[in-house]
Amino acid sequence: MVSFGIANGPAPARLTIGIVSAGRVGTAIGAALERVGHVVVACSAVSDASVHRAETRLPDTEILPVPEVAARAELLILAVPDDELAGLVGGLAATELVRRGTIVVHTSGANGVGILAPLSEQGIVPLAIHPAMTFTGHTEDSARLSDACFGITAADDIGYAIGQSLVLEIGGEPVRVREEVRPLYHAALAHGSNHLVTLVVDAVAALRVALEGQELLGQELVGDDPNGLPERVLGPLLSAALDNALRRGQSALTGPVARGDAAAVAKHLEVLEDVDPRLGAGYRALALRTAQRAGAKPELMEVLEDGG
């Protein structure tokens, strides 16, 4: 069992870990826990991609059916998509193979410990530990965990102590998230990270047309060269903008919307829609929200609400 001395206490006991399944998140967390001395004894993997991840990231781990993974674990990590979690938990509860006292952790951002109720009734320790990090399936995933915050929800203080100890071991920062606000917590993270990717890819697509003259109308707006000219132009600007926003909040806002320059914004909409109407629609939606935050003048709001 885990020792609960978090600061300057004895090292936590080594745990035998089972992972369901060998996706991007599960293998990254498993590799991070192995680096600090825990042992991933078994994981489940069905697709060719998940088998390859397991063999690459967790080479000493047996690939077994889910019930066998569950039966072997002192710490069972359920790293499956949100829409599969309830069914998995119900299936595990029906088998009664998860031993009483097992620490069962799911990595879903949107769910707390309530979804683990069928297993909790059988005497497991329920935990929701969600890494606030994006996972690409590449080697950097595990390293990034050491700089990440982890949203922890537990049934009681003992559960929180276990979750915090595990997160601190791998270098992360534990953050308590109440059960009832997990959906809002997850929505905020998805809005910030997922939509940032769409925003950046759209900006790269428009800049590629401007700088390289590529015709993108009717094609997917996706770049294929991370070291291309548009990416190099945008990289420092986007990094500075993100840093400024995180450190200074609303006061970091610059540009034509912040200045209330209706003519410039109208021209932006015109040229972006010429490249692809979807680009213009994305710009309009984000500019409108920016204008609302900035308390923009009526003439600018009129430009943005036209065709909205």
TrEMBL record:
Where does the Putative oxidoreductase/dehydrogenase Rossmann-like domain lie? 11-131
Q: Where are the transmembrane segments?
A: none
UniProt domain DUF2520: residue ranges: 149-290
Coiled coil, from the record? none
Pfam families under this entry?
DUF2520, Rossmann-like
Q: Which domain of life is it from?
A: Bacteria
Give the protein's recorded name: DUF2520 domain-containing protein
| Species in which this protein is naturally found | Rhodococcus xishaensis
